[in-house]
Amino acid sequence: MMQFLWKTSTFSLISCTMVCLFYTGIAIVAALYALFDVNYFIRFVFMMIWGKFVPKKRKRLTEDVHSYGFSTTNDVDFFITHMNNARFIRELDFARLDYYHRTGLYDAVISKGATVLQAATTARYRRTMPIFTFFRVATRLVYWDEKAFYLEHKFITLSDNFIRAIFISKQQLTGIEIGTSEIINLVDPDLQVPEAPEDLKLWIKYNEASSKKLRKSD
């Protein structure tokens, strides 16, 4: 009888422990999702591992590098019909990561002990990105000066090949005294600086004017 009671109590203790661990795990996961954008970090780590260990054809800096996405319920706005504006900008992080790995630009920057920071972004939304829609982001280098790389990103729906939105990212080179041209030469020595598109020239002037205004107010 005592042995039966001992076995029963042991089983009950193990069961209670497993139930407690189960609910503790749920609580931890819920807390992580409440405090952090967990899906963002999971996808970012996955893309870094994928880019490092799964070989892909090397792209030139001025060629389009395509990354792919899918608009889900996590991306929609209040009306639950299409991707909200902020999620487009979030998606650029993954597009840039893929671009840096596929072109070798990331390795060149790191080899010089430098890093790049997002200094500015401009966006033009042409048409909404419907929920449950597959799309690709075409990223390429369109211009660079001595301090920054300028990347163009086009959001294109796969169903109709329509450009839903277009962005320009200014990637500021930091951490070293050398300019972007030396980094470019490490990746593609024959590549010459292209002429900046007219819209980009105007945007660069806007950024310069904005910086001057902010410096005066400091």
Using brief descriptors, characterize the structure shown.
218 residues; alpha+beta; 6 helices; 5 strands; 48% helix; 23% strand
- What's the average pLDDT? 89
User: What's the number of helices?
Assistant: 6
Please indicate the percent range of residues in DSSP E strands (runs of 2 or more): 15-25%
- Strand tally: 5
Global shape = globular
Measured distance between first and last alpha carbons: 82 Å
Tell me the layout of helices and strands.
Elements (H helix, E strand, L loop, with lengths): L1 H34 L2 H16 L11 E6 L14 H19 L1 H7 L3 E11 L8 E11 L3 E10 L5 E12 L5 H8 L10 H20 L1
Helix pairs in contact: 2-3
Tell me what you see in this structure.
The chain has 218 residues and is an alpha+beta fold. The protein has 6 helices and 5 strands. The protein has a 5-stranded antiparallel sheet with strand order 1-3-4-5-2. A hairpin with a 3-residue loop joins strand 3 and strand 4 (148-157). Helix 2 runs parallel beside helix 3. The longest helix has 34 residues, at 2-35. It is globular. The mean pLDDT is 89.
Summarize the structure.
With 218 residues, the chain is of the alpha+beta class. 48% of the residues lie in helices and 23% in strands.
